[in-house]
Amino acid sequence: MSTQSSRLAARAMVAPSVVLLLIWMIVPLAMTLYYSFRLYRLLSPDRTGWVGFNNYLWFINSPDFWLALFNTLALVGGVLIITVVLGILIALLIDQPVKGQGFLRILVIAPFFVMPPVAASIWENLFLHPQNGLFSAVARSFGAQPILFLENYPMLSVIGIVSWEWLPFATLILLTALQSLSSEQLEAAEMDGASAFSRFRYIILPHMTRAITVVILIQTIFLLGIFGEIFTTTQGGPGSASTTLPYMIFKQAIAAKDIGRAAAGGIIAVILANIVAYFLMRGLGRNLEN
Amino acid sequence: MGKIQLTKVRKSFGEVDVIPGIDLTIEDGEFVVFVGPSGCGKSTLLRLIAGLEDTTSGVIDIDGKDATNLPPAKRGLAMVFQSYALYPHMTVRKNIAFPLKMAGMDQAEQEKRVERAAKVLNLSNYLDRRPGQLSGGQRQRVAIGRAIVREPAAFLFDEPLSNLDAALRVGMRQEISELHQSLKTTMIYVTHDQVEAMTMADKIVVLNAGRIEQVGAPLELYNHPKNLFVAGFIGSPKMNFIEGAEAAKHSAHTIGIRPEHITVGDGPWEGVVGLSEHLGSDSFLKVAVDGIGTLTVRAPGEIHAHHGDRVRLAPAGKVHRFDANGLAI
After folding, report:
1. The whole model's pTM is what?
2. Is the pLDDT of residue A16 over 70?
3. Residue B79 touches chain A, beta carbons under 8 Å
4. How would residue A1 be classed by pLDDT, with cut points 50, 70 and 90?
5. ipTM value greater than 0.85
6. Do A192 and B50 touch (CB under 8 A)?
C-alpha cells in the first residue's frame, strides 16, 4: 500500500463492503431515531405526529426503568465475573493431560450449542422447577424446603442460566490462550522457585490477559441484549424483578404496541451500550495492544 | 560448592529407554559440555539434573546431598533455556529479579543484585525494556542475568546459542567463557555444535543413544578417540575411515586419518579430485583414491587442484587404528 495508485485501488475495492455495512447500520438507526420522536401506537394508528422528547421522558420516568437498567448491568457484570473466573479454572483443569481429553473437551463445550430458549427451558423445568427440578429433589433429600428460584431469586436465576450458556465460550478462548503458553516459561519459573500459585499469578494470568479481554468485550456485546432466557423463564417477573432494558423495550413494542416508546428505549439502550463500550475500551483496550 | 554426581541414572519414557544408565562426575567449577547428535539424550540428561524430568532410577547427588527427588527450585541450580524463556510481560529488571522475588528477598537487596548482574552483562541501559524490544543477543544476556542473580551452585545451559546468528554466536561463546572464568561456578552446557564444545569445555561428554561414548578434555578426545563414533564426531571435516587391505597393513580392521593429516603432492595414494572448496586459509578436497575410496583432505593455504585433476596423497600424522568392534587399538 505504498504508492498512491495502489492506495486508491485498495480504497475502491474496500468501498462496497464499507458502504454496505454503513447502510446496514445507518438505516435501522435512523428509523429508530425517527420513530423515537413520533407518536406511533399500533392500537391507535390514526393518531400520529411529533412528540419531541416525550417518549424518552416516559421511558426514563417509568417506575421500572432504573431497575431495568440495574438488572441489565447486573446481568452483564454477574455473567462476566462467573464465566471468566470459572472459565479460567476449568481451562486450567482440562488443560491437564488426562485420558479421554478430547471427549472431555467436547462435553465442556456442548452447552454452547444449545439455543438460548431451549437452554432456559431445560433449566426452568429440569433444574429449577419446585416439584420436578433436580435442585428441589436434592433439597428434599436433605429434608429441606425446595428453593423457589424463579420466584424468589429471579435475577440470580437468569444470571445462572446465562452463565451456564456462556461458560463454554469463555473456557474455549481461555484454553487456547493457555495452550499457547510456552512450557519453557513455566519450567523457567519453576526453576526460579515459583510455587504453583506464583506461576499462575505471575506467568499464566498475565499471559491470558489478552484472551480475558477478548472474552469480556465479546460477551458484553451479546449479554447487553439477552432476551430469550428471560422471556422463556421469568417473563421479566415476578412483577418487574427480572426486567432488563431489552425486555422492557420488548414489552413496549409487542405487549403495549407502542412503537414510539419502544424506539426511544432502543436509543437509550444504544447510548448505554456505548457508555459501557467506552469504559471497557478505556479500562481494557491497552491489553489488546502488543 | 557445585559438585554433581550421577550414579546409574536411568530414564525411560514408557517402553523406550532414552538413557539406559549413566555414571558421571562433574567437579566443582568445571565447564562440562554434553555433546552429541540430535536425539542422543543430552537435553534429557540436563533436564534430569535440573529436576524438570524425574529419573526412572539412579541417584543424582548435588554437593554431596541426594537431590534425586528434590523439586527443581530446591536444587540450587539455574538454567538458561534454548528459547530463553523470558517472561514477556515483565521488564528486564523484573525478569532478572523474579527468582529473588520468589525467594522472598527484600527489595533493596534485589535491586542491588539486579544492578550488579546488569553491569556484568552490559544490560544497564535496557533494564526498563521488555524482552520483545530486545535483540536476540540481549535476550540471551537477560536469560543469563536471571540465572546468575541467584548465585546458584551450577548453571545449566540448554543449547543457548542455537537461536543466534553466526557472528553473535561467536561473541556470546566468548562471553559465556569469560563469565565462567570470573564466576568459577560449575557450568553444564548442552550443544550439538562440536566447535562450541571444543572451544568452551574443560571436559567434554560425548553422548550417543543415551550412552556416554567418552569423557575427556577437548584435545584428549581429538587426539585419542576411544572409538569410531567419537573419532567421527569430534573434528571437522570428519575423520576419514579406511577399511580393507589398507587397514590390514596397519593390522587393524579400520584405520582413521584426519583430513588435516593428509598431505597433497607426493605419496603412496593416487586419486581424482571430486570436489574442491577453497576458503583461502584452507582448501578442502574430496579425492576418490584408487582402491581405497573417497578421502577428505584439508590442506593449508591455496592448492591448485580442481575437479578432475589427478593428485597424489600421503598420510602425515597420527593414524588411528580401530578393531572390528570399532574400539581404538
Report:
1. 0.79
2. yes
3. yes
4. low
5. no
6. no
Q: Which residues of B touch A207 (CB under 8 A)?
A: 88-89
Residue finishing a domain among B175, B195, B230 = B230
Q: State the nearest Cα–Cα gap between A183 and chain B, in angstroms.
A: 9
Q: Is A66 on the interface with B (CB under 8 A)?
A: no
Question: How high is the pLDDT of residue A24?
Answer: 93
B163 part of contact set with chain A, CB < 8 Å: no
Counting other chains too, the contacts that B174-182 makes at CB distance below 8 Å and 24 or more residues apart are B175/B141, B176/B144, B176/B200, B177/B31, B179/B120, B179/B144, B179/B148, B180/B31, B182/B120
Confirm or reject contact between A125 and chain B (CB < 8 A).
no
B255: containing domain: 246-322
What strands lie across the sheet with B293-300, from one edge to the other? B293-300, B282-289, B262-278, B310-315
Q: Which residue of A has its CA nearest to B52?
A: A187
In which order are the strands placed within the sheet that holds B57-62? B16-26, B4-13, B57-62, B65-66
Does B151 reach chain A within 8 Å, measured CB to CB?
no
A17 domain residue, yes or no: no
Q: How many CB atoms lie within 10 A of CB A217?
A: 16
Q: Are residues B215 and B259 in the same domain?
A: no
B198, B230, B262 — which closes off a domain?
A: B230
Quickly state the pLDDT bin for A98 (edges 50, 70, 90): confident
Q: How many whole angstroms separate alpha carbon B92 and alpha carbon B118? A: 9
Q: Which residue of B has its CA nearest to A188?
A: B85
Contact A189 B87 (CB under 8 A): yes
Alpha helices in A95-153 (DSSP H): 101-109, 116-122, 134-141, 149-152
Query: Tell me: the pLDDT tens digits for B155-202?
Result: 999 988 888 888 888 888 888 899 899 888 999 999 988 888 899 999
| Cβ neighbours of A290 in B, within 8 Å | 132
CATH number at residue B274: 2.40.50.140
Please report whether residue B236 resides in a domain: no
Chain B residue at shortest CA distance from A199: B102
Tell me the percentage of chain B whose pLDDT exceeds 70.
100
Beta strand B31-35 with B186-191: parallel, antiparallel or unpaired?
A: parallel
- Whether B72 sits inside 8 A of A290 (CB atoms) is no
Sign of the Cα torsion A58, A60, A61, A62 reads: positive
pLDDT at B1 over 70: no
- The model's pLDDT over B98-153, given as tens digits with 9 standing for 90+, comes to 999 988 888 898 999 999 888 888 888 888 999 888 888 888 889 989 988 888 88
Q: Into how many domains does chain A fold? A: 1
Domain for residue A40, yes or no?
Answer: no
A contacts of B71 (beta carbons < 8 Å): 190
Distance of CA B108 to the CA centre of its chain: 38
Which structural domain, as residue segments, surrounds residue A79? 54-288
Comparing A149 with B312, the larger pLDDT belongs to B312
